Amino acid sequence: MSSSSPVTGFPPANWFLASPTQEEQVLQLRFIMEVALLQAYFMQIDGTLNKLTTEPSAYVGAGAFRRVIIGVMKLW
Questions:
Q1: What are the DSSP calls for 28-63, one per residue?
Q2: Model-level pTM?
């Protein structure tokens, strides 16, 4: 008697997901690291933009400040 699914004629279901291969694990880890790097990068950009908008005179003159902000906003 062979094992089969409750529906006659179909092969047994694979109830357990296969473990990821080593290559898949490396790809998953690489993806996680890239996401973390992007998150850190954008947090740094956000912090820099926040400093420039809250204390502009501490970093640049008024005219240069406006040019920097306009340039940054064009990037978004």
A1: HHHHHHHHHHHHHHHHHHHHHHHHHHHSHHHHS-HH
A2: 0.47
Gap between the Cα atoms of 20 and 28, Å rounded: 10
Contact 59, 51 (CB under 8 A): yes
Query: Would you say residue 69 has pLDDT above 70?
Result: yes
Rounded to a whole number, what is the largest CA-CA distance in the chain? 85
Q: Encoding tokens for residue 33? A: 């690291």
Non-local (6+) Cβ contacts of 52 within 8 A are 59, 60, 65, 68, 69, 72
